[in-house]
């Protein structure tokens, strides 16, 4: 089920928090650098510029080993993962 939620926090380049969930959401099919890895700050800033404070569509697809929802995330009609492709790990 797709829900509309406001992004309240960017944890890293592929993990967010929203106004409707207590546990962060991992963006499906996306893998950006983790903290202390090259490119982390750029990926986090790019995701922040793209969706922080904005309404996104969340479509859960799984749960990860940490209990987070893994979801397809859309801003308007675009998948966030598509817009963030250049920031993914090489």
Largest sheet: 5 strands, mixed, barrel
Number of domains: 1
Broad CATH class = Mainly Beta
Q: What is the element string, with H for helices and E for strands?
A: EEEHEEEH
Note the beta-strand portion. Answer: 35-45%
Helix % is 10-25%
Q: Which structural category fits the helices and strands?
A: alpha+beta
Tally of alpha and pi helices: 2
Overall shape: globular
CATH architecture: Beta Barrel
CATH topology label: OB fold (Dihydrolipoamide Acetyltransferase, E2P)
Which residues form runs of ≥5 with pLDDT under 50?
Answer: none
Q: Give the rounded overall mean pLDDT.
A: 96
- Spatial order of the strands forming the largest sheet: 1-2-3-5-4
Give a count of the beta strands, DSSP E runs of length 2 or more. Answer: 6
* Radius of gyration, whole Å: 12 Å
Task: For the record, give the distance between the C-alpha atoms at the N and C termini, rounded to a whole number.
Answer: 32 Å
